Amino acid sequence: MKLLTSLLAGLKAVCATFSDLRKGRAGNIAVSDFGLSAFAMFFMQSASFLSYQRTLEKGHGRSNCETLFGIDRIPSDNYIRDMLDEADPALLRPCFERMEALLAEPPMRQAFGRLGGRTLVAWDGTEYFCSQKLGCPHCLTRKRSNGKTENYHCLLSATVVAPGHSKVVPLTPEFIAPQDGAEKQDCERNAAKRWFGNHHARIAPLRPIFLGDDLFACHPVCEMITNAGDDFIFTCKPASHKTLYEFIKGAELSRHEEKVRRRNKKETFRYRWIEAVPLRDGKDAILVNWIGFDILDAKGQVKYSMAWVTSLPVSKDNVAEIVACGRARWKIENESFNVLKNHGYELEHNFGHGQKFLAMTLAALNLLAFSWHTVLELLEPPWKAAREAAVKRTSFFAHILMLSAYVIFPSWDVFLESLASFTIPPELIINRGGP
């Protein structure tokens, strides 16, 4: 478990840099223990994990928080919230940067590389907190029909995806929040510009291709990406790109069709494309390549239709793969946001809102846990073996919670071996606290 141990060491070092405004009892609990404790809850997929470990600590003088996560003392929930409210989520960037470095490893390149070994980074925003009572300086606001003001939090996620692969890897999020000096409320486009400015140079070795919905298919975003030497595939709808669709109306389009069989049904994949069309009106409009895609059933009826604009050159040889990559944008919705909100991570649950950074920092720790789970399943054999032994993801985390609530494991190696083999070393049971 060298990778997990290394990741935890890096996280502990980062958490040690969190702000510490305590007076008098500043030495009671290390600053790093607050961040590690919150992360452990997300990583173990249980809001009750810390409670169980406090019980073990009372009975045995130690717990899995200490042996597995390196937490010297487990703070109370309220103490964690108070301390993390002062912790800017930007401090967690080195932990996400480690994910970027791991994406360059050969197994990750093989898993996520597409279009000649390039990495697909999907952008999309999601809301993770909403209240008409609680609020903080980083909340966005909106008026409801009942006249009440609603406070909410959103983030822009940059997530590595790939067609034909069920895993995704969230990278550093960009929080959509009020910006100093800005008159208008923050939005996804502005967040994407900030994210790109902060991170694109660092991930350049991954040769990224950015994916996004129609919102990002605009001149400023597309020009920003191409000026940096990167590429994009963005959804392009007629309603928001009237000039482009007027331009291609009646134009001679390149065409290609493929007959495929899916789920015992015959379908036709129809591709149409044209290069060097203006994205908007104006002499300075950026030129893009437009691709239309339809799926027809055996009777020739259109079942699915979508279109994209891209900076990539398009030909008969690569149009099918470009379309597959463009369609992979939905994985940020299905394999990322849906999992984060409905399958264990409980992203929309109010773990604590605070008055400063708390809601944002907890959301960032949650995304980091999700990212680690993906990377460990692909790169860490003991983790992969334990995960496969459980078959279902829900069963895997249920077993983790059950075993860690009653037995103190001296290391991740021993813990994961128990999960994979469905056995507990006798000495851990006899000694009731491990060696």
Description of the molecule:
- The radius of gyration is 24 Å and the shape is globular.
- Helix content is 42%, strand content 21%.
- Helix 2 crosses helix 13 and helix 6 packs parallel to helix 13.
- The chain has 17 helices and 12 strands.
- Strands 1, 2, 3, 4, 5, 6, 7, 8, 9, 10, 11 and 12 form a 12-stranded mixed beta sheet that branches.
- It is an alpha+beta fold and 435 residues long.
- 39% of the residues are buried.
List the helices and strands and how they pair.
Elements: H1 2-15, H2 31-43, H3 49-60, H4 64-69, H5 77-84, H6 93-102, H7 106-112, E1 113-114, E2 118-131, E3 140-143, E4 149-161, E5 169-170, E6 174-176, H8 188-199, E7 208-212, H9 219-227, E8 231-235, H10 242-248, E9 254-262, E10 265-278, E11 287-296, E12 302-310, H11 319-327, H12 331-342, H13 358-379, H14 381-390, H15 393-406, H16 412-421, H17 426-431
> How is the biggest beta sheet arranged?
12 strands, mixed
Q: Could you give the order of the helices and strands?
A: HHHHHHHEEEEEEHEHEHEEEEHHHHHHH
Query: Helix count, per DSSP?
Result: 17
Distance between the termini: 19 Å
The total of beta strands comes to 12
Low-confidence stretches: none
Overall geometry: globular
Supply the helix-strand structural class: alpha+beta
Percent helix: 40-55%
State which percent range the strand residues make up.
15-25%
Average residue-wise pLDDT: 94
What radius of gyration results from the CA coordinates?
A: 24 Å
